[in-house]
Amino acid sequence: MATPIQIYHALQSYYGSRDWWPAETPFEVVIGAILTQNTNWNNVETAITSLRQANTLTINAIMQLSQQELEQLIRPSGFFRQKAERLQLFCHYIQQHYQGCLDNFLEREMTLVRDELLTLKGVGPETADSILLYAGHHPSFVVDSYTMRLFKRLGVLTGTEKYPQVRALFMAQLPVDVQLYNEYHALIVNHCKEFCRKQPQCNNCPCADICLEPNRNIDKLP
Ligand code: SF4
User: Fold this and answer.
1) Cβ(208) – ligand 1 distance below 6 Å
2) Phi, psi values for residue 83, rounded to 5°
3) Fold for domain 4-18+142-220?
4) Looking at ligand 1, which atom is closest to the CA of residue 200?
5) Cβ-based neighbour number of residue 218 at 10 Å
6) What is the pLDDT of residue 221?
7) What does the pLDDT read at residue 1?
8) How many Å apart are CA 150 and CA 194, to the nearest integer?
9) Whether pLDDT at 217 is above 60
10) How far apart are alpha carbons 84 and 62 in whole angstroms?
11) How many other CB atoms are there within 10 angstroms of residue 69's CB atom?
């Protein structure tokens, strides 16, 4: 079985550098991390473009909007009522506890920030780790459904592990390296969209040589 670092190198040498996350500021990463829940990235980009055109990509501007105004701006991202509420709660929290300064919140010890993020409404482990890694530049490995799918097929996971175990496994086996975690998550997403889809396209897959299940048991794969 290939190790996580071997798999990283296989993906990296095939796809090259991904330069993810496509955001101009850390706060834009936070917005994207909340809006991307239960939708695809194209819808998030449309919503962020609306926010940009309305000049509302700051904590202060989001707080100034009524919830209805914010809902309309982010409507393309789906679940817009729930997400508008979560975004405004996040902004009010940073305003109340960190003088409205996201850096003051993020630039502290990673575990402290993570534990605090997880107390906020609508912020689960994947959203928290995305914010930590891509906005806060903390070495926190992001796990998503693509990670679960790919690494089960590659034999690294059994498919029964929960989020904390998977995150811990990667963080124990990889060097503590923000750039590597950043690239790795982006490569996993890229690979699962291109080859390792729900119905995998195993022909020409760059991981075929190290995969335990190329073209086998496809009907049983998640
Ligand atoms: S060989 Fe098939 S199942 Fe294995 S990683 Fe590639 S696409 Fe996924």
Assistant:
1) yes
2) -70, -35
3) Endonuclease Iii, domain 2 (1.10.1670)
4) 7
5) 13
6) 47
7) 85
8) 12
9) no
10) 9
11) 13
Domain ranges of the chain: 4-18+142-220, 26-135
208 C-alpha to ligand 1 centroid (Å): 6
Gap from CA of 36 to ligand 1 centroid (Å) = 25
pLDDT category, 212, cuts 50, 70, 90? confident
At position 135, the amino acid (one-letter code) is A
Question: Residue 214 has what pLDDT?
Answer: 75
**Which whole number is the average pLDDT over 170-186?**
97
pLDDT, position 170: 98
Top pLDDT among 21 and 48 is at 48
**Percent of the chain scoring above 90 in pLDDT:** 91
**Can you identify the CATH homologous superfamily of domain 26-135?**
Hypothetical protein; domain 2 (1.10.340.30)
Q: Which of 39-43, 52-56, 218-222 has the highest mean pLDDT?
A: 52-56
200 lines ligand 1 (CB under 6 A): yes
**pLDDT, mean of residues 183-191:** 96
Whether ligand 1 lies within 6 angstroms of the CB of 48 is answered as no
Q: How many residues does the chain have?
A: 222
Residue nearest to atom 8 of ligand 1 (CA): 196
Please work out whether the CB of residue 188 comes within 6 Å of at least one atom of ligand 1. no
Chain Cα centroid distance, residue 17: 17
Q: Are 51 and 87 in contact (CB under 8 A)?
A: no
Residue 57 CA neighbour count, 13 Å, CB half: 19
